[in-house]
Design a protein that fits this description.
The chain has two domains: 70 residues, Glutaredoxin (3-Layer(aba) Sandwich), CATH 3.40.30; 130 residues, Glutathione S-transferase Yfyf (Class Pi), Chain A, domain 2 (Up-down Bundle). It is built from nine helices and four strands, in the order E-H-E-H-E-E-H-H-H-H-H-H-H. A four-stranded mixed β-sheet has the order 2-1-3-4, with helices on both faces. Strand 1, helix 1 and strand 2 form a beta-alpha-beta unit.
């Protein structure tokens, strides 16, 4: 199987996580940001992640991929119940976290934006989404201040560093990618319990954190 991804993409992280959690081999192929043809030929539109199954067929949509791989051997890993508080937390912070990691993503050495044309396209796409990237970077202290009480709340929700609800569930698939994205923010100090969860989940899912490129 092959998994077509962008290295920065939280949705791609979701798909990659299930392979790591289940220790299933998969070839990861990075799509270029300005490569429209390849994903369009696969699934009819520019999107990532895309799974190429063993039979050669293609499957888009991160959670469809997660559920397909998790059920493939009849022994699902994501057997735990979800907690509505996790979805509520993610919804509450989405307009705080994106302004922190998006402008930093545009500066990072991700393979999908390694060429000038790919980076320019990505910068334009992100600017259209979140606004002036330089201004967002300048406003980092404000966003960090807004995020801190939410992180403190999250620490109270984490039941285990190896599963947010004590047993692996789809909540982990949704939560970890956002927290992983935040590791690119150099000035951010995660509460100890949150940091322990992030580091443990990174090891279990075999997904690298972004500390090495933090700005």
């Amino acid at each position: 199987m092959k998994l077509f991804i962008y290295q920065h993409c939280p949705f791609c992280v979701k798909a990659a996580m299930i392979f790591g959690l289940k220790n299933i081999a998969v070839e990861k192929v990075v799509l270029m940001e300005d490569d429209i043809d390849t994903p369009t030929q696969m699934v009819g539109r520019k999107v990532a992640p895309i799974l190429q199954k063993a039979d050669g067929s293609f499957m888009p949509e991160s959670m469809d991929i997660v559920r397909y791989i998790d059920q493939l051997d009849g022994k699902p890993h994501l057997s735990g119940a979800t907690n509505p508080a996790i979805a509520e937390w993610l919804d509450a912070v989405k307009n705080i976290t994106a302004p922190l990691f998006i402008p930093r993503f545009t500066q990072a050495p991700f393979a999908e934006i390694a060429t000038e044309s790919a980076r320019e396209r990505y910068i334009q796409r992100m600017t259209n989404w979140v606004g002036d990237l330089d201004q967002l970077l300048a406003d980092t202290p404000l966003y960090l201040q807004q995020l801190q009480p939410h992180l403190a709340q999250l620490a109270t929700l984490i039941q285990s560093e190896s599963a947010v609800n004590g047993t692996l569930s789809e909540d982990d698939i949704h939560l970890f990618p956002t927290l992983r994205s935040l590791t690119i923010v150099k000035a951010l100090v995660l509460p100890q319990k949150v940091r322990a969860y992030v580091e443990t989940m990174a090891k279990l899912s075999q997904v690298e954190l972004l500390d090495s490129m933090a700005v």
